[in-house]
Amino acid sequence: MAQEIERKYLLKDGSWRDAVTESRRMTQGYLTTLSGGARASVRVRVSGDAAFLNIKSMTLGVSRDEFEYPIPVADAQHMLDHLCSGAVIDKWRHYVRFGGLLWEIDEFLGANAGLVVAEVELSSEDQAITLPDWAGAEVSDDPRYYNVSLVEHPYAQWKDV
Amino acid sequence: MAQEIERKYLLKDGSWRDAVTESRRMTQGYLTTLSGGARASVRVRVSGDAAFLNIKSMTLGVSRDEFEYPIPVADAQHMLDHLCSGAVIDKWRHYVRFGGLLWEIDEFLGANAGLVVAEVELSSEDQAITLPDWAGAEVSDDPRYYNVSLVEHPYAQWKDV
Fold it and tell me: Which parts of the chain span the membrane according to its record (chains A, B) (predicted)?
């Protein structure tokens, strides 16, 4: 088991784009639902010619238990098409190195178009980090930004709330 | 992806025990819940020194889509202890060969003690089968007998319904 310790930020502007070193298109969905009281999320992700099952504890905040297993792309595609709940999330993940850390910037498409979120993985909860100029408000503790939330309450509907 | 085509029966009596060729203790739980409207169940099972993640469509009846992946036992045990919803199912699975088919007879323990169910896997929905004398009423279409149901509504509570 890995422990995922992650901080999540909104973006102030588009200046991060100049620093991108790699971008990957990702499609993902969830076999679990938010409303059923499950203690973990089960994610299916296809990224290029690879696919993964990912299981994470649903605890809110910076640290979560995490397991990840590679699976055949055809299996994952069937799950996305037939077994996942809610909408499928479609996004570009951009990679930016800053201050000795790898930042992952998710630029959402489809029902979540307009939403851009930067994540950085840490080795401990109290690790000091230097924030890039383009990092805005921290949203690590806001459940709306969980990808598992975005399949049920996509960004396009947030205006209605 | 495999397609699971399975018929499930209650047991008339204990005469099947004489025909058992192998028995395995199994502990399993679910990362999905029944109430959340998920379209698939995600099961974690530990059986001896092996463990598996299993994903099945939640369609009712004889045929279901099924995926299964081996995972480390330590991962599965952590999921059973911390991430599964509801109770963990503990059972003996007994194997009996009859009429050219392999029957799996689940004898439940703990909160489901007293429940014994026989399952037989078929290669098509209309495959003719010869029922053993000990096979009782068919319950393939009764959702109460789904293992994913038994974690939330264990057999010990059925009397109350």
Answer: none
Chain A neighbors of B31, CB-CB under 8 A? 31-32, 38-40, 42, 55
Q: For B53-67, how does the pLDDT look when each residue is reduced to its tens digit (9 = 90+)?
A: 999 998 766 788 999
Domain residue spans in chain A? Answer: 2-160
Q: Does A38 touch chain B (CB under 8 A)?
A: yes
One-letter-per-residue 3-state SS of chain A: CEEEEEEEEEECCCHHHHHEEEEEEEEEEECCCCCCCCCEEEEEEEECCEEEEEEEECCCCCEEEEEEEECCHHHHHHHHHHHCEEEEEEEEEEEEEECCEEEEEEEECHHHCCCEEEEEECCCCCCCCCCCCCEEEECCCCHHHCHHHHCCCCHHHHHHC
Q: Do A71 and B74 touch (CB under 8 A)?
A: no
Q: What architecture (CATH level 2) is domain A2-160?
A: Beta Barrel (2.40)
- The verdict on B4 touching A (C-beta cutoff 8 Å) is no
pTM comes to 0.87
Contact status of B2 with chain A (Cβ, < 8 Å)? no
Q: Mean pLDDT for each 10-residue chunk of chain B (161 residues)?
A: 90 96 96 87 95 90 88 97 92 96 97 96 91 96 89 85 44
